[in-house]
Amino acid sequence: MSIVTKAALTAMLALGGVAVATASPAAPAQKQKKGKEGEAPALKVGEEFRKAAMAAQTALQANDTATADTQLTAAEALIKNDDEKYFAAQLRLPLEARKKNTAGMKAALDTLLADPRTQDKPRLTFVRGDIARQEKDYQGALRYLQQAQQLGYNDAENLTLSIAQTQFDLGNAQGGVAELEKAVQAKKAAGQPVPDSWYDLAVAKLYGAKDSAGVSKWLRMQLNDYPNAKNWRRSLLVYRDSAQLDNQGKLDLFRLMRQTKSLADQNDYLEYADIAYRVGLPFETKAVIEEGRAAGKIQPTGLAQLLNDANSAIKVEGSLAALEGKARSAANGKSAAQLGDAYLGSGNYAKAVEFYKLGLQKGGVNTEEVNLRLGNALVGTGNRAEAGTAFEVVKTQPKAEIATFWKQWLATPGTATASN
Question: For residue 102, what are the β-bridge partners?
């Protein structure tokens, strides 16, 4: 993906008539005269070169590219000194820019950047760096772009994005993302929206670099600006894959997708229901499949075998209410927490809250896991404030990241809705 569109051409054309803006070739009688104070000195050129060059300049100003090219080629054949070389390069650069000929621009730029008389070197250095990028000379591009930055090139957004993209081209995901973050901060400081595609790019690069913490950070940044169902679904799935979650972790993430209405199709429901069944929660498998069918995300007879298996397991287990006495009388909180899982999966959030709290009270459970699920159940009951408190207890990865996603969703109520 390229995030710098026509940046070099825009910068180049912004220069206007380079030759007109700087020094001009002197007429014969003016050769030895200096310009007025503050003006560039007249260039010392031969008469034959001057005529051809001025004809080229006149044609260029009239947008007669063909004539300008013919006249300038004739002038270049007459070059005998550095002044003539310098003036020809000033004409050649805007001409080649209009022709969109990067090779010609490159040659002219190299001449101008080597000459101390050249004005607007920061912008020209940026253009030279962008051309190097087009030629896949990424080390050279980075050198020119960083030099433009040092010279004070003032189109910070295009420059920063160009450096970021070049770092990506060089395989430096961290360096590129660091530059991209500068561009994001500049946009926000200016009160401007950050393009959604910038977040997509950073996430893709960090995902490729297997930086799960970085992926999570940028997904949350994206959700802050674009908290729609598409981004919620994508963010949670990308995080799941980058974090390499076990089945319990995936189950907790699917529960967040269920709560935020981010389950998109039958494949999502199949994976969720299958994991729930394999970890011993047939009530959740049954509830998820029935919800998917009711929402039209699963065909009326879809996932029939898995639903039959879940129903068979439920018959063996008996009703959840029949398990409550055992959970209350147990020596520790494990049975209560397991019953809380079953109630959570079946959608009975009030009962889930009751038995998760009982499990924590009795002890002997994974406190962070139970609090993560308690927060989930509290969201289901509408007790968002207490849910946030439960999520705050979760500090160990990868569950801490899932809790952070829950807290982010709590901060943007009503935004995580299913796609049509």
Answer: none
46: left (phi over 0), alpha (psi -120 to 50) or beta: beta
Residue type present at position 33 = K
pTM: 0.67
Residue position matching structure tokens 């709590």: 410
Tokens 């920063």, residue located: 160
More confident residue, 147 or 242: 147
Could you tell me if residue 100 is left (phi over 0), alpha (psi between -120 and 50 degrees) or otherwise beta?
left
Q: Report how far residue 234's alpha carbon sits from residue 214's, in angstroms, rounded to the nearest whole number.
A: 15
Residue 240 near residue 250, CB atoms below 8 Å: yes
Tens digits of per-residue pLDDT, 141-150?
Answer: 999 999 999 9
Round to whole Å and give the CA distance between 124 and 52. Answer: 25
List alpha helices for 318-366, DSSP H: 324-329, 334-346, 349-362
Q: Could you read off the pLDDT of 46-85 as tens digits, one per residue?
A: 999 999 999 999 999 999 999 999 999 999 999 999 999 9
Which residues are bridge partners to 25 per DSSP? 43
Place of tokens 């004005």: 119
Which of residues 42 and 19 earns the better pLDDT score?
42
Name the packing angle between helices 247-259 and 367-381 (round to 10°).
20
Domain ranges of the chain: 7-30+39-118
Q: 41: closest CA among 53, 23, 28, 56?
A: 23
Q: Which residues pair with 43 in a beta bridge?
A: 25
